[in-house]
Design goal:
The chain has 102 residues and is an alpha+beta fold. The chain has one domain (3-94). 22% of the residues lie in helices and 32% in strands. The protein is built from three helices and seven strands. The strands form two sheets. A five-stranded antiparallel beta sheet has the order 4-3-2-6-5. It has a two-stranded antiparallel ribbon with strand order 1-7. A hairpin with a 7-residue loop joins β5 (48-51) and β6 (59-64). It is globular, with a radius of gyration of 13 Å.
């Protein structure tokens, strides 16, 4: 994608690994990890992990900030652009900064 993005979460969905980034739209979006090169392989100490029962074609697991993992509706809320989910994400993400060129 040509820029360095901070990853706020990861998800296993239908067997694919997705990453949650705040992209140039300034909104949270899920993208396949294959679109990115990893420049920092560390995982934040405060991340959590949770399994989901989405079956082979659904959401199987999530990693990330506590609300993403502990609130089973938060993942879908981000996708549906629900105000409460977006507010929580923006609190976790902090101020927006243009991604650094890669």
């Amino acid at each position: 994608m040509g820029h360095v993005y901070r990853i706020f979460g990861m998800a296993s969905y239908g067997g694919d690994l997705l990453v949650l980034v705040r992209d140039s739209t300034q909104k949270p979006n899920w993208y396949p990890v294959q679109l990115f090169d990893v420049v920092d392989d560390s995982i934040p100490a405060d991340w959590r992990f949770g399994l989901r029962d989405g079956g082979e074609r659904g959401l199987q697991a999530v990693w990330g900030y506590s609300t993403l993992v502990q609130d089973v509706n938060h993942y879908g809320g981000l996708i549906e652009r629900e105000p409460e989910a977006l507010e929580t994400f923006y609190q976790e993400a902090g101020p927006y900064h243009e991604p650094d060129p890669y």
